[in-house]
Amino acid sequence: xxxxxxGGKGSIKExxxxxxxxxxxxxxGGRVGWEEVRPWLTKVxxxxxxxxxxxxxxMLKELNEEEQRLIxxxxxxxxxxxxxRNNMFDCQRQLSLYDKIWFGKFCYLDRQLNLKWKWVTGExxxxxx
Length: 129
Hints:
- The chain is mainly alpha-helical and 129 residues long.
- Helix content is 39%, strand content 0%.
- It is flat and about 65 Å long.
- The termini are far apart.
- The mean pLDDT is 77.
């Protein structure tokens, strides 16, 4: 039959904070070394319900520089972004909303095949992913 009007709001079951891809969630400042903070940040990342990894300012800078270098040296005019924006082969029907927004930028689930990730982090990152 439905619900009677006037019951007020229901109880709160959970709280949600939307986090966009590629955002810094936690930042630590002060006189502390990366080797001291990395184990603690790794534990924090493991406890989060999303895939996250600890990075320092040097790693972020290298990631951004490598991304800009790849964009600048790309000689192929047909990129993933071009295919999605122009809906080539009706690809938008098969893609997720995240691919339509970020064009595959933050979809690196396989870190073994991601050469950019390997080049920037090298052997410094010993995380689970």
